[in-house]
Amino acid sequence: MSRVTVAIVQAEVAPTAAAALERAAALAREAARQDARLIVFPETWIPGYPSWLDVCRDAALWNHPPIQAVFERLAANSVAVPGPAFDALCAVARDVGVTLVIGVTERVDRGPGRGTLYNALLTIGADGRLLNHHRKLMPTYTERMVWGAGDVEGLQAVDTPAGRLGGLICWEHWMPLARQALHESGEDIHVAVWPAVNEMHQLASRHYAFEGRCFVLAAGSLLRARALPPELEPHPERVKGPDQLLLNGGSAIIGPDGQYVVEPVIGEEKIVLAELDLARNRRESMTLDVTGHYSRRELFDFTVRHVPRPVAAE
What we know:
seven-stranded mixed beta sheet; Nitrilase/N-carbamoyl-D-aminoacid amidohydrolase; 26% strand; alpha/beta
């Protein structure tokens, strides 16, 4: 398929997993009615990014009952894979007939690591099968108080009707080896999920598109201060009122030349749509080749052969 219509869902997160699943189904159907064959939701859209780590007091206090209550609720509304919420997401993809990529907080219910939460990115095919399951390699800063360190199992692109599809979560776009693994896997479309796509995240997403010669779907959420946990006290210098947007979206679609196909959408709910011509990836890659750049494989092989290795002291 040379041309494909894709969509990013930018919307306010729901207060519970059940409400989020209901919203995801409705928004996916709406995007599909506009011919989208690939639909992307942002980082940890279920049950929402834990912005309280950054804007509320006492979030790191040991044995603090308000924080314990918040963590209990976060765990209860997370998605077990497999589990009922995951099955519901698979049913959405199957019923709507689209490839679905969605960020979730994943909860391990059985086996090693039982009870651990992960920042995960799920890719579900139009037949309802799980195509890829990626856990964020290393939670960023205070995120480590709620999420465990992930693994490399999902660092790959997979075949879908929308082309070869891969994805990374937030800070992984500044991890050179993670980017290299995805580039080597061969992406037509890369999904970059963020809490919100601020200026630095836009730069990282555009750089990824240019470096990988692929389209990038940069997805961000909306979150208002009134959605913060009621048990916690917002910091007055960071939260001015209940309607303040703590996460302001910024979702955008970027071409393989690093330029915007759809400019960032700030501060509003919207299904961000575009028809992509995947042949552009090859045209942009050819531009690199004819100007004398090494391919990634050639550069890797050159480095292995010619970069000096440290000499052990005798």
